[in-house]
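sorry for the late reply, my laptop died twice this morning and i had to redo everyting from scratch. anyway the thing you sent over, i finally got around to it. pasting the sequence first so we're on the same page, its 104 residues, then the predicted structure underneath. double check i copied it right bc i was rushing
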Amino acid sequence: MILTTTETICGKELETLGLVKGSTIQTVNAVRDIGAGLKTLVGGELTRYNEMMNDARALATKRMVGEAEAMGADAIVAVRYSSASVMQSAAEVMAYGTAVRFLN
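ok and here's the structure:
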């Protein structure tokens, strides 16, 4: 499955199949969350939160690709990601784009 942030794929004529999306809500372990809270006092990167968001993006992408495959898509164009805080220490990540099929 080709994923691109552009609206076209060079050299390919595309048939639009429709919107596809995938999402997940992730949280971190409460003990690690307390540690992250303490980290805010001294500053620095919150590596566990980075890992959580990377895992969430990967899962959201996998679910989006699954929807596209079920539609018979060859690619997903105009891929975008969004995230939102759902509650303290929990975030939703959504991946979305347009499923397309190659005509040539």
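Strands lie at 2-3, 14-27, 75-87, 90-102.
thats about all i looked at so far, will dig more tmrw
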